[in-house]
Specification:
This protein is mainly alpha-helical. About 55% of the residues lie in helices and about 5% in strands. It has a two-stranded antiparallel sheet with strand order 1-2. The protein is elongated.
Length: about 130
């Protein structure tokens, strides 16, 4: 039972599911306050189940998990041409030769979550150099 007494929120321990493990204080009211916050969107996130899973298995909070999911989705949404150009620049900066770079990019493209079509070395060169 939740009661308001002299400006304090009191929660009976039997009804609280989130006691603080360090001090023994009861934190159940924080969840209710957070859900009422205008910062929390009323519409569900399209990947709500994934966000719940990430917050359950990791130290990430809901906002951090949402940022991670958005970043991963943006990473895999990168078009093949942009990915090839970006990786070519990164690998070239490491000092690799084009022969090794194109072989490596070809292997990486095949392993991506949504695999790009198989591109020949010539096609990869055309993407990079036009």
């Amino acid at each position: 039972m939740i009661t308001l007494r002299a400006g304090r929120v009191e929660i009976k321990r039997a009804e609280c599911r989130n006691p603080c493990p360090i001090s023994g204080r009861i934190l159940g009211f924080l969840l209710a306050r957070r859900l009422e916050s205008p910062l929390v969107s009323a519409s569900p996130h399209p990947h709500e189940d994934l966000l719940a899973h990430l917050t359950r298995i990791s130290p990430l909070g809901p906002r951090e998990a949402a940022r991670v999911v958005a970043e991963v989705l943006a990473y895999f949404a990168e078009p093949t041409e942009e990915y090839v150009r970006r990786r070519h620049g990164e690998l070239q900066a490491r000092g690799l030769t084009n022969e090794k770079i194109f072989a490596r990019i070809g292997t990486e493209l095949a392993a991506r979550r949504v695999a790009a079509p198989v591109l020949s070395t010539r096609q990869l060169r055309r993407i990079v150099y036009g």
